[in-house]
């Protein structure tokens, strides 16, 4: 195992040592990285685990040799590169079903137990006392119990999504999931959820076939999460009071968000899977609130037709824009995704980049709107920087997040009325959305939500209190 420590002499007054183990997807690594930094700032020693094949990707993106140590800080964060038990050159995405089969049958668990966690627990100073692990690892409590560690499951999505998965048995019982004739009427029997349409459930709870490996992983994870000592959630009590109060009757559920990736955390632990294009110079001459930022995140895949229709919609809207069109946005390997003549048509008012620093873009005052897939990190970042959202969810929790953004909080609008998107409708929606008059109410609502987030993380705020409570309970035990 390769180890890089950002500190060699930190005075750990708590004697707490956490192994941090994210799901190795961009949207999970980012909040894990920031949470590591937050806990290290409260005296924790952190051992942050990254798989070899992920570290290789991140190292290439940062243009640093894979053995380059992370930058020093005053915090005791130990970045460790470990094997997942398979050859580094094994194509995990290309063999996803095979990989998930191995994963679900205990291949990853057996390797980590015998070759990774055991060594860290036996050799670390200070002694490891808590495992903070992504909820989607379905053996989290088992591995913690094996080594006598407290187990904190870190949920990187909103509480309502956790709540719906937690109560999937009710959806089955009442016929809204995994039934021959699935009901389509509103769901009003989930504790902590007033009412929700089936179209706003997570995509995995809308699927007709619930027997896939992904479904098995989710359901196994939710069996396991009932056995952990703590659930940490990247949300805010005042944002989702009903779901959170319900969950707190069932589990030690701590809302500690918003957990937004900061520059100090990025310097301590490398994060980005792709080279980040610097858009700051391009943004400089633009007027306040005039730029539309377009990004569909690190994982969601679109069809070639969707990309083409969005491109025509953006082009014909005549708004200024930055569009993040990441590699493998379309899975069929197509390279020519944009219409002929697109670059000439938008020259001077728009740029297309493979990846960028999203927080840097959203924090720039010239950015007035965000066309987004509604990933939870993107939603929280939009609220924090008070950028209204134009919503186009693609899969997993994004449909439920869209409900929160558009229907409940009224800080965004839908890109299209249905799932079939057409360039003319996109053009009109973008024009309307980017008009100053239309965004006025959205800006007022999102400003209110930003204040809620700010108060939660300030001294004495709800999220800060929950994080301090977690630190105290781990320390006492």
Automatic annotation (TrEMBL):
Gene3D superfamilies recorded: Glycogen Phosphorylase B (3.40.50.2000)
PROSITE patterns: UDPGT (PS00375)
Enzyme nomenclature, EC number: 2.4.1.-
Highest taxon above the source species: Eukaryota
InterPro entries to which the protein is assigned, alphabetical: UDP_glucos_trans (IPR002213), UDP_glycos_trans_CS (IPR035595)
Enzyme class per UniProt: transferase
Protein name according to UniProt: Glycosyltransferase
Species name: Saponaria officinalis (Common soapwort)
